[in-house]
Amino acid sequence: TTPPPNPTTPPPNPTTPPPGHSGDCMAVYRITSTWSGGFQAEVEIMNHGSTPFNGWTATWTWPSGQQISQIWNATQNSSGSSVTVRNVSYNGNVGVNGSTTFGFLASTNGSNSLPTVSCARA
Predict the structure, then answer these.
(1) What share of the chain is helix, strand, coil (3-state, %, to 5)?
(2) Half-sphere CA count of 99, side-chain side, radius 13 A
């Protein structure tokens, strides 16, 4: 028998990173608790690069009118539905293959659709 021919072209590589991933910075958003009119969530910032981070920024747009009322392990600035979160002094340095997490409490207007969080090293 003759072996099957080798493929003539390699399989295509993905052309875009998954949501929440920008180069070597990746953000994972998780809702950890919910109640009527509100919820608690955390975002894990991960370094998948070859050098440590000396700071990071996470950004997203709320799809359903949510609003942060309290945040920890980060600072935040909101303008309408746009949110920008930055590291604080003690968690800006993220080693190679390391991660850090911030959390928050937020209110909802009934719906709590998940945002797509992007992150970047500072």
Answers:
(1) 0, 50, 50
(2) 11
CA Rg value for the chain: 19
Using one digit for the tens of pLDDT, what is the confidence trace for 7-58? 444 433 333 334 445 579 999 999 999 999 999 999 999 999 999 999 999 9
Torsion-angle region of 80 (φ positive above 0: left; ψ -120 to 50: alpha; else: beta): left
First to last CA, the chain: 59
Structural domain boundaries of the chain? 21-121
Residue 121 pLDDT level (bands cut at 50, 70, 90): very high
Q: Domain 21-121 class? A: mainly beta
Amino acid sitting at position 46: M
